[in-house]
């Protein structure tokens, strides 16, 4: 799914100028990286606010039409107002078709309700990690990565190394070890009931 939206070049810089833009329903932002210079721009605040609510917006290659010139970017940073539902500033980074990029991608868990851990073991599945860091070319970027939990047994965990990644996508690990993504935890009541059954 290709997400495209418009922006306008912004000449006036500084806090006062940004405040005036926000009052007018505009959102100041910047596009940086790649071959071009950093480009200060403004967006329609409400349009971007609604886009930011979509999970896919955070893990997709986006197209920004800046006064008729298209920029290919990924979302890098947003600053939010402390208590109002308002975005104060937004950063996008240019991506090149032939250069690998690094981005967080959401995990979608499937099959936990049919897993032996839940059906037979009376377990609850705890999702420990909801996104992973990946590296790939823009064309290979997945909107999300699916984690199949249908074979999970009671007391077992799924680790990052067990996730099947799409072709062309590599995992980026920070530090040592193989982090747990999801685990099957015994529900207290079920464990106690089991213990009572054995005692009887």
Automatic annotation (TrEMBL):
Signal peptide segment: none
A biological process term (GO) from this entry: translation
Keyword match Electron transport: no
Keywords, comma-separated and alphabetical: Ribonucleoprotein, Ribosomal protein, RNA-binding, rRNA-binding
Pfam family, one: Ribosomal_L25p
Cellular component aspect of the GO annotation: cytosolic large ribosomal subunit
Large ribosomal subunit protein bL25 beta domain span: 100-184
GO terms for MF: 5S rRNA binding; structural constituent of ribosome
Domain Large ribosomal subunit protein bL25 L25 as annotated: residue spans: 6-92
Subunit structure: Part of the 50S ribosomal subunit; part of the 5S rRNA/L5/L18/L25 subcomplex. Contacts the 5S rRNA. Binds to the 5S rRNA independently of L5 and L18.
Function: This is one of the proteins that binds to the 5S RNA in the ribosome where it forms part of the central protuberance.
Family recorded in the similarity comment: Belongs to the bacterial ribosomal protein bL25 family. CTC subfamily.
Name recorded for this polypeptide: Large ribosomal subunit protein bL25
Lineage of the species this protein comes from: Bacteria, Pseudomonadati, Pseudomonadota, Betaproteobacteria, Rhodocyclales
């Amino acid at each position: 799914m290709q997400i495209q939206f418009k922006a306008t070049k912004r000449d006036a810089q500084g806090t006062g100028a940004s405040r005036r833009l926000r009052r007018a329903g505009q959102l100041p932002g910047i596009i940086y990286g790649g071959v071009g210079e950093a480009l200060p721009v403004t967006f329609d605040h409400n349009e971007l606010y609604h886009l930011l609510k979509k999970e896919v917006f955070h893990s997709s290659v986006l197209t920004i039409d800046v006064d008729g010139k298209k920029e290919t970017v990924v979302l890098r940073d947003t600053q939010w107002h402390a208590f109002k539902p308002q975005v104060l500033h937004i950063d996008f980074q240019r991506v090149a078709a032939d250069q690998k990029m690094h981005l967080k991608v959401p995990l979608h868990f499937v099959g936990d309700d049919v897993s032996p851990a839940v059906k037979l073991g009376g377990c609850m599945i705890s999702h420990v990690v909801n996104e992973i860091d990946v590296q790939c070319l823009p064309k290979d970027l997945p909107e999300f990565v699916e984690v199949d939990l249908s074979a999970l047994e009671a007391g077992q965990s799924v680790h990052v190394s067990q996730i099947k990644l799409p072709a062309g996508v590599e995992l980026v690990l920070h530090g040592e070890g193989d982090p747990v993504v999801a685990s099957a935890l015994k529900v207290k009541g079920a464990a106690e009931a089991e213990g009572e059954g054995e005692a009887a």
